[in-house]
Write a structure and sequence with these properties.
The complex is a heterodimer of chains A (about 425) and B (about 375). Chain A has about 425 residues and is α+β, with helices and mostly antiparallel strands. Chain A has a 4-stranded mixed beta sheet. In chain A, helix 8 runs antiparallel to helix 9. The longest helix of chain A is centred in the C-terminal third of the chain and has 38 residues. Chain B has 3 domains: about 110 residues, Acyl-CoA dehydrogenase/oxidase, N-terminal domain (Butyryl-Coa Dehydrogenase, subunit A, domain 1), CATH 1.10.540; about 100 residues, Butyryl-CoA Dehydrogenase, subunit A, domain 2 (Beta Barrel); about 120 residues, Butyryl-CoA Dehydrogenase, subunit A, domain 3, CATH 1.20.140.10. Helix content of chain B is about 50%, strand content about 15%. The mean pLDDT of chain B is about 95. The chains are: A alpha+beta (about 425), B alpha+beta (about 375). The interface between A and B is large, with 44 and 48 residues. Strand 1 of chain A pairs antiparallel with strand 1 of chain B, so a sheet runs across the interface. Bound molecules: flavin-adenine dinucleotide (2 copies). The site of one flavin-adenine dinucleotide has 13 residues of chain B, from helix 8, helix 9 and helix 10.
């Protein structure tokens, strides 16, 4: 044990390879899909799918887990006699940062299980994992999504009103409710010919009186009768990523599609497991924010260099130009935010409890990626504001980082509870 | 590999320094600040932790190698106790560490054993100059080579323990490059102000103005001898130390205000239960973590000989100075009116917190 900052080889390799992918497959498509919202980037999806297959399964790097589905439990904490420490989450974070540097919206269109598969990983049984996750290794690109949010339940997701009741005769779950803001909901649920059958993971209560203890997640297969994508949102940014509203009316789901116990026990394990998904994914979302911020930052530095403006690192602040001060401040933000991501995922890889670090990395990333991209647009003046360049798009894309997977405020609450030793009741 | 756990040895050191910081430095800090005097007994005890000694090879009387990471961990812990105290205890490093890292063989043999083998004794360095745009890479103190000797001219500010120092390492501009020169206390033309510097903070640390008028020194007294020294590396070591101290002070302010907020009641609840306070604390903790990691990375880069170390030490020092101001300001805010009263340490930490933007050169790792 010691303090070290060398990126492990597979991480450095992934960053190298994905930079090319980002430059060749993402950047050239960024503007088009920003301006053609709801058009599906088929060429990109198919290319990425076959590229990932060629490189060994559903992954972009040989024999390592993919950015869109966490490594299986046994791989996450692989122990090979202490020779090679586990780096699964570090690798995913690096991949997500690199791809988001390319285009964070297109990153969301990467085929794979996404948050839906992550929920199956976290809360499903081994049989369920096998049953539901094999599809992501198939011939066709396949998607899955996570449906928690409702119109009346966002940050306070214990307030969801979607209900699941057991039909004792058929042993099926009958689900009713309306979900909103489902990332990839359309590609996961709608049966497109070019795609394999996906699924959505729907959070519902099996016993409203039990509160959080009654919350469960259900795997709802694509095309299930009674379920409809009722709307695709029009957004400020990440427009290429579909954000669906999905209604469920008497949707019937097989008994075995429930993740976790089918009866209400006193321990709210279902909800806790959903939250555990977030501990794992928060630093990853933070990584996407860092990627967008880095894109904007590098673009700024390139434009400055074209005008022979080079940052004089090392000068006292009083001697720096305002541009230099801003660039230096941004670099401090960017570098430190990335280190916070790395520390949080390194802890996850090493089985260290990381709720504090995960949320801190998300707080910091949400802060700095909005600040940096907004500042870049300002500093570039008309070039920044013009849609001829991507700076303005990155500013719009960046904002989502501070909203989904726990808003900046919700993550501050998590951090504060951790450092104060408070429960949710003591600080809400 | 990424890794964020200190080694076992480092962990033991952290604990030892933390104990000293909490049991000796912190309790003495307020009195020292008000009286301007930190008891020598306490400095001596800090010296016995052996931080400098452990960073100097056996050949020269020490028992180890310099590790910037270890140094940074120790400085953070010490500054967590008290900044002025930390700067006092580590002052001899300002002289010894550059010699150990970049001195000529004769310089090492002459100075290192006598510094590290004995008790704490005042040795120091003079870098800072009294100008709003002070720039360590563009010093106004000038060194010129005349008749086979260097002649030093200029004025230095904020020189710790200058009055009693056995010798000083004076940084000066030699043909546009910052270089360092060993100046004995009896050197002709060296004059040290009678009055101590009067600053906003760190009042327990005796700081002086030092004037150099045609101070002649033998060429052998240039740090590193004829070929001189790589000042950028030394500056990076000072900046990392500055950043580490900033993190330590900020963490002290964070923990103190956190604990206060959990005790203090207003409107029927603990103030920590109000988001206005809780969110400030969450942001303070987050910023501290961010700058600590940036500072660690720069230190690691220095230890592993990476080029980025120089730039990253600058970023860490710049970022940590801002962070320390922000965090200490909020700590005062969280204590409300009581934060403003000198019964609590937070106002002192806030005054110290502003110092990191200009105090690079008062510590080195
Ligand atoms: C593009 C996009 C993609 C998304 N993808 C998904 C997805 O795939 N699956 C899914 O389930 N959801 C998804 N979401 C939903 C997202 O997680 C929610 O929008 C988010 O959790 C916030 O909920 P809300 O929008 O209802 O805001 P609200 O909860 O109404 O929050 C409004 C404001 O109040 C603040 N606030 C709320 N509670 C507190 C509190 N206790 N203390 C202080 N401040 C508070 C919030 O921080 C925010 O600033 C997505 C959203 C978007 C925009
Ligand atoms: C130099 C000085 C002169 C003064 N002069 C006078 C005077 O002449 N006469 C007089 O009567 N008083 C005077 N005061 C007292 C001053 O008005 C109080 O210090 C001030 O009202 C704050 O109260 P407190 O110090 O008890 O802090 P607290 O009330 O304990 O507050 C501590 C912290 O909690 C925050 N906080 C408290 N309640 C909430 C809440 N509901 N939501 C969010 N945050 C909250 C506060 O903003 C603060 O950050 C003086 C104080 C000073 C320092």
């Amino acid at each position: 044990m010691s303090i070290e900052f060398d990126a492990p080889k597979p991480v450095a390799n992934a960053q190298f390879v994905l930079k090319t992918v980002a430059e060749e497959m993402m950047r050239p498509n960024s503007r088009y899909f920003d301006e053609h919202e709801h058009e599906i980037p088929w060429d990109y999806i198919e290319f990425m799918h076959s590229a990932m297959k060629a490189m060994g399964g559903n992954s972009l790097a040989p024999r390592e887990p993919s950015p869109s589905s966490p490594p299986p439990e046994d791989e996450r904490h692989r122990d090979d006699g202490g020779k090679r420490p586990p780096i699964g989450y570090q690798l995913i974070a690096a991949q997500m940062e690199a791809l988001s540097w390319g285009d964070v919206g297109l990153y969301h269109c990467l085929p794979g299980g996404g948050l839906g598969a992550a929920a199956v990983h976290a809360a499903g049984s081994p049989e369920q994992r096998e049953k539901f996750l094999a599809r992501f290794h198939g011939d066709k690109p396949t998607f899955a999504a996570m449906c928690i949010t409702e119109a009346g339940a966002g940050s306070d997701n214990s307030a969801i009103r979607t209900r699941a009741t057991l039909d004792e005769k058929t042993k099926e779950w009958v689900i009713n409710g309306e979900k909103i803001f489902v990332t990839g909901g359309d590609k996961s649920f709608t049966e497109y010919e070019k795609l394999g059958r996906g699924f959505i993971v729907v959070w519902a209560s099996i016993d409203p009186a039990a509160g959080r203890a009654g919350m469960r997640a259900f795997v709802v297969e694509g095309g299930t009768p009674g379920v409809r994508v009722v709307k695709l949102e029009h957004k400020m940014g990440i427009r290429v990523s579909d954000t669906a509203a999905i209604s469920l009316v008497d949707a019937r789901v097989p008994f075995e599609n429930i993740l976790g116990s089918p009866t209400v026990d006193q321990n709210p394990t279902g909800f806790k497991k959903a939250m555990a998904t977030f501990d794992a994914t928060r630093p990853l979302v933070a990584a996407t924010g860092v990627g967008v911020a880095r894109a904007a930052f590098e673009f700024l530095k390139e434009r400055l260099a074209e005008r022979e403006i080079h940052i004089r690192y090392g000068l006292p602040r009083q001697k720096l130009t305002s541009i230099e001060r801003d660039v230096i401040d941004m670099e401090i933000m960017l570098k430190s935010a990335w280190l916070m991501v790395i520390k949080a995922v390194w802890m996850a890889d090493n089985k260290k409890p990381n709720a504090l670090e995960a949320s801190m990395s998300k707080v910091r990333s949400g802060d700095i990626c909005t600040k940096i991209t907004q500042k870049v647009v300002e500093m570039l003046g008309p070039l920044g504001y013009s849609r001829e360049f991507l700076a303005e798009k990155w500013m719009r894309d960046a904002k989502i980082t501070d909203i989904y997977e726990g808003t900046g405020q919700i993550n501050r609450l998590v951090v504060a509870r951790q450092i104060l030793g408070y429960s949710g009741a003591e600080l809400r | 590999m990424y890794s964020f756990d200190p080694t076992e040895e480092q962990q033991m050191l952290i604990e030892a320094v933390n104990k000293y910081a909490a049991n000796d430095l912190r309790p003495a800090a307020r009195n020292a600040e008000e009286s301007g005097e930190l008891p020598r007994k306490i400095i001596a005890k800090g010296w016995e932790l052996g931080l400098l000694q452990a960073s100097i090879p056996e050949t020269y009387g020490g028992f180890g190698e310099r590790s910037a990471v270890t140094g940074a961990l120790a400085v953070e812990e010490m500054a967590f106790g008290d900044l002025a105290g930390a700067l006092a205890v580590t002052a001899p490093s300002l002289f010894a560490t550059p010699i150990s890292l970049m001195g000529s063989e004769e310089q090492k043999r002459e100075y290192l054993p006598r510094i590290v083998e004995g008790e704490w004794s005042p040795y120091t360095a003079a870098l800072i100059e009294y100008a709003f745009d002070f720039d360590p890479n563009d010093l106004k103190t000038i060194a010129t080579l005349e008749d086979g000797r260097y002649s030093l001219n200029g004025e230095k500010a904020f020189v710790s323990f200058a009055k009693e120092a056995q010798a000083l390492l004076v940084y000066a501009n030699l043909d546009g490059q910052t270089q360092a020169f060993i100046v004995a206390k009896e050197a002709e033309g060296l004059s040290i102000s009678e009055e101590r510097e009067k600053l906003m903070g760190v009042n327990a640390l005796p700081l002086y103005r030092v004037k150099l008028t045609n101070v002649k020194i033998p060429v052998a007294n240039r740090l590193g001898g004829e070929s001189g020294c790589a000042f950028e590396q030394l500056l990076a070591s000072m900046r990392i130390a500055n950043a580490a101290a900033a993190v330590g002070v900020a963490n002290a302010a964070f923990e103190y205000s956190r604990d206060y907020a959990k005790e203090r009641e207003a409107f029927g609840v603990k103030i920590a239960q109000k988001q206005a306070i809780a969110f400030m604390l969450a942001e303070m903790r987050t910023e501290i973590e961010a700058m600590r990691l940036l500072m660690w990375e720069a230190a690691w880069e220095l230890d592993t000989g990476r080029e980025d170390a120089v730039k990253d030490a600058y970023l860490a020092s710049t970022g940590a100075a801002d962070m320390a101001m922000m965090v200490t300001d909020r700590a005062v805010q969280i204590l409300g009116g009581h934060g403003y009263i000198r019964d609590h340490p937070v106002e002192m930490w806030m005054r110290n917190g502003r110092g990191f933007a200009m105090l690079t050169g008062l510590a080195i790792i």
